[in-house]
């Protein structure tokens, strides 16, 4: 688990992370916040920034509301670095906690 990361009213509205997953492994990712957050990401290797539709994800699909809680799995067949973006559209200060689980072999 990473320490709470702040979004202050006068700071950046986006934080960027790179998460490594070995081939044929996966990691559970959990993001929680008292504020309204968006969590987006993309795939690995030739699609590092999630440019291909099949490798993109966005939580939630609609505008976010507070509080926020998202859980999902990164990985599968291909290993590599996944891009994870955590952001807010609000100027209200908030914090969040990002938990990245240990790698698990299998789907």
Proportion of residues in helical segments:
under 10%
Oligomer: single chain
- Level-2 CATH architecture: Sandwich
Q: Give a quick account of the main beta sheet: strands, pairing sense, barrel closure.
A: 5 strands, antiparallel
CATH class placement? Mainly Beta
Question: Can you give a write-up of this model?
Answer:
The chain is mainly β and 107 residues long. The chain has a single domain, classed as Sandwich (Jelly Rolls). It is 0% helix and 50% strand. The chain has no helices and 9 strands. The protein has strands spanning 5-7, 14-21, 25-33, 38-42, 57-59, 68-75, 80-87, 94-100, 104-105. The strands form 2 sheets. Strands 1, 3, 6, 8 and 9 form a 5-stranded antiparallel beta sheet that branches. It has a 4-stranded antiparallel beta sheet with strand order 2-7-4-5, with no helix packed on it. The chain is elongated.
